[in-house]
Structure formats: C-alpha cells, structure tokens
Amino acid sequence: MDTPATVEVPDEPLTSALDRAAARHGDRVALDFLGATTTYGELDQHVDRAASALASLGVRPGDRVAISLPNCPSHVVAFWAVLRLGAVVVELNPTLGAQQAAHLVGDCGARVVIAWSAAAAALSGALDATDASVVPVDLTHDLPAAKRWALRLPVPALRRRRRALRGTPPTTTPWHRLLRDAGTGVPAVDAAPDDLALLIYTGGTTGEPKAVMLSHRNLVANCVQGQAWTGQSAAQSEVVYGVLPFFHAFGMMLCLAYATRIAATVVLLPKFDVGAVLAAQKRRPGTFLPAVPPMLARLTAAAQERGVDLTSFRIAISGSMALPLETARAWEAATGGLVIEGYGMTETSPVALGSPLDARRRPGALGVPFPSTRMRVVDPDDPEREVGPGERGELQVAGPQVFAGYWQRPQETAAVLLPGGWLRTGDVVVVDDDGFVTLVDRSKEVIVTGGYKVYPSQVEDRLRDMPQIEEVAVVGMPGGDLGERVVAAVVLARDVASLDLATVREWVGDTLARYAVPRSVVVMTELPRSAIGKVLRRAVRESLLAGPAV
Q: AMP-binding enzyme C-terminal domain: which residues (predicted)?
C-alpha cells in the first residue's frame, strides 16, 4: 500500500479519540475482558464517573496519577479518566516490588495510585513517606458475572484464585466503590496539545529509572502515523488483541491509544496465556495483533496443535526484539495475513520505523521511517557526522512523536536530545541503498527478554548487597523464544564455597520485576576488566558463550 511521506497532526488532546468513538460508535464493543463486554457508549459513561471520583480525591489538571494494574477494563477506564481531568497518567508495572514502585511514585510525585488490590497493602506501607493515596482495585469486579459467581464456590483452587485477584482487605475505599458513589458531569479539561499526558519509566543507558515525558501531541502523532501506515479506520470494525501490557509503551500505544482512535474492539487479557488467547479467538476472532516474536511463535504452534483458525488476523505488528524469519513465515502461513516489524523506544511514543505492509517487508530489518519521521545515521563518537549507506552508525530520529524529555532530569535529557529535535537512540544500525534499516548492535547494554528491557546495573546493585557475592556482572544470554535470558556472573565472597540460583532468587525477592530476576548464576574466579578497572560486561558474555552452556 502507498503510505504518505508526511501526516498532519491535529491540534487536539488524546481524549478526543474516545469522545469521537463514543459519539459515532457508541453501540460498538470497545472492550472484551474474558467475555465481559463494554461498549464505547458505556466506556464513556464509566470514564465520566471515574473522572468524578478522582476529582473528589483532589486530582486536578497537571497532577500525576499512577496506574499499577494488569490489562483490564479498570485500567482502561482509569487511563482515560485521568486524561479527561487534564491530569497525567503514570504507568507502572504491577509486578514491581513495593519498595521499587514506591520509589517511582515518589519520583513523579503522584497524588493518587490506582493499584491492583493484591499489591495495594504492601505499596501503601511503602508509601508512608509520601502524600500519595492508594486506591485498591479488586479485579474480580471486571470479570463476567458467571466467572464472578464461580469464584464464590467453596473450591480450594477457586478460593486461591479469588485471593490472588482481590488481595488483602483494603484499608482505603476501593476503586469500584468510589465509582459507584461518584456523581457524573465533571467538566472535561481540554488539554493543550503540548501539555504532558503520560509518564512511562525507562532505564535509559544507566539503568536508573527515568520517566519519559510524552505530550498529547506526541501520542496523537503516533496514532495518526500508525493509521497512515496500516490504512485502518473506524469503518472497518477492527478487533485488536491486547496481549501486550499497557504499562509498556508498545502495548499502551497500539492496544489502547491507537485502538481507541480507530474505534476498535480490544480483547483484553491480563497476561499473555496461549490457552486464553486461543479461547478468545474462538469467541471473538481478532484482526490485528501487536506482539513480540515469542508470542507469535507460541500462538502459531499451539493453534496448529489444537486446530484453532487464525485466518481472521490480517495484520500482526512485531516489536521489542528481532523477528526471526521462520517465525514470520509460520505466522503468515497460518493466518494468510502479514506480519511486519516496528522499531522504536519509549522516547518515540514508541514507534519510529516500520517495515511496509506489502511485499517489500523484510523480516529481521527495522524497516523505514514512519510518516513525518526523519532519520540519520551518525558516527557514534561524533553525533553530528553522518555516515554513508552500508556503514555502521548510531541511529538518530526526529519527528512529532519524539518525547519532550525526562521528568526533572535536564542533564539526561540534554544527553539524548540534540539541536534540531534529533534523538540519539543508542542503537547501532546499517542502512542499505533502499533505505531499509537493520540493527547490528546495541550500544546500550540492555537485556531484552520476552520483549521487556532489563537494565543490568539495577540487578547488579541488588546482588552486590548479597553477603555471599564479592563481584557481579549481569548479562543477556541466548534464551530461545525469550530472546535473551538474564544471567548473573558472580565472584564469591571469601570463605563462600558455592551459591545456587534458588538462593539468589530468594534474595532479590520482590525488589525486581519477575522478568529481571536472574535465570542462571555462573560462578567465576574473576571478572574481566578494562585498563581502568571497569568490569567489561561484553567480555563476560563472550566468555560465557565460549564456555559450557548456561
């Protein structure tokens, strides 16, 4: 298909997409959560009531409201309600440990935290030093009526599931009670295009979490760019599978913001589960699947084994890690549709490049720039000097989707945002004569596992406090369909004879996200260092690759 070189970004807040969808497609199903459906008209009403509830808690324009929830209707309602008040959404990973989540809440100065009730009590305790209030969300309220009834049965397995979904009894007013008691009709705030809409934390090059500031214009621009790329519109009744988490920029954009712009039905799943996805496919066949390669590979294999028809999917967008050619071929054979790669980062809202949705697509390549996106490849040591086709260099991008900077971190912002609006991505690429970009190296030592980014220094900082460990280097090792596995290479403290993986995993406890917890531990006599004494992670990885499998 022909994609325009540029797009016109309307001067409107992101919430205009929901307003239009409710006005023009009020009877269309907006959300399907395990069979429980919500139309766009109903969603608009829920958002109105939620905005009133948040206003009663003192939320005002510009205030930050953190959302720490898996994908569920409550997450969607809270997201739009915060924005409708002119406030700022702060997306937090609900699997973060209480202390780590509390640190981020303090960093952004969130006034309210809407949190999964399973973690709300621990988070409340960790937030004693802040003024933030925690609103717990009982996820059982989002389930279909039949499933809610089943959870009441005196069956041990169901009781355990009910406890996991509900958590401990809340000490503050729960989310659904707030909504029930709230009024309606709180005036919406028409945010200006350049007003801050969203904060999403990323580790950057150092691993220290930084909040990426995305404006309404950034997010609207990426929605418009995506629509120009795919050719999708509200007239087509798309069914988007929301298997990517909303706290990740990839999932937030394609499965929430963009999906609402095209008035799609979003099939929500609280986590990726092959069986749940295939069950949903039988109930409500999907047309559009944003995913990471391991998801595509597992779904293709399982569908073939179980005889599930995937031919309703016309487009799959793969991102966060390289798309293997065999995965692409298997998906397209199973669906008859197309799978293309997209490239970006949280700082680009997140999509900046993509492979064309036609025969020119190239699995394994990042693709070409999105409409209204400029690109250049420069000498990594001289970010103003461009290199020629076929030469390795650092990718830089500029466009309306490029972020405004890091929250309250002007020095880190200046290090990546250059004059002319150019963003240093930190990724080393090669551009061929046709303009296709291929990733050849990562200048940032970030581990990508299952589509999530793990910053080695964060894991290392926690492990260095372990009495049994003298030194540690955390690296990514080949991990099959996960992409990479997190591996900790350690030098043991004096008089310590051994250290097993279970002990390490117990030590990190809930201080790290689950995907960041090491999957292997390798004991070494010493770690390779540079002339100035810096541990060389790349040399550690090369040593492990050359040695016995880990």
A: 459-534
